[in-house]
Amino acid sequence: MALPNAYSNYTNTKIQTASPAQLTLMLYDGAVKFCNLAISGLDEHDYFKTNENIKKVEKIIEEFRATLNFKYPVAKEFDNVYEYINQRLLEANIRKDREILAEVLEHLRTMRETWVEVMKRGKVQ
């Protein structure tokens, strides 16, 4: 069936044609999604699912950190937030702690909402 291939092609095209701002939003969306899946894994006592999705969130956070431009003072503040989120993800994974993941999810949602506002105001492209 060609449907999975069509979806993959659509996704690849969407990524390749997205602006840097849209790519950042997609990363935030992914981080929120994977954090939700990690929480779902905990609820289901599926620790493999939890671990795999926490690792996906960590990779997204690593990408955010790698792309920070430290010529702007706000980059250090973002780096501190990302470092904190990574520490909390590690703790959540070790302890299998739903509350910590819920805290991380709230931070991710807030950062995503802020990014959407920045995009609406035309501050980024």
Key structural traits:
125 residues, mainly alpha, 5 helices
Describe it for me?
With 125 residues, this protein is mostly helical. It is 83% helix and 0% strand. Helix 3 (47-66) runs antiparallel to helix 4. The longest helix has 24 residues, at 20-43. It is globular and about 40 Å long. It starts with a helix and ends in a 5-residue tail after the last helix.
Largest sheet: none
Structural class: mainly alpha
State the shape.
globular
How much of the sequence lies in strands comes to under 5%
Q: What low-confidence regions span 5 or more consecutive residues with pLDDT below 50?
A: none
Radius of gyration: 16 Å
N-to-C order of helices and strands: HHHHH
Q: Which helices and strands appear, and what pairs or packs with what?
A:
Elements (H helix, E strand, L loop, with lengths): L2 H15 L2 H24 L3 H20 L7 H22 L2 H23 L5
Helix pairs in contact: 2-3, 2-5, 3-4, 4-5
Describe the structure in brief.
This protein has 125 residues and is mostly helical. The protein contains five helices and no strands. The chain has helices at residues 3-17, 20-43, 47-66, 74-95, 98-120.
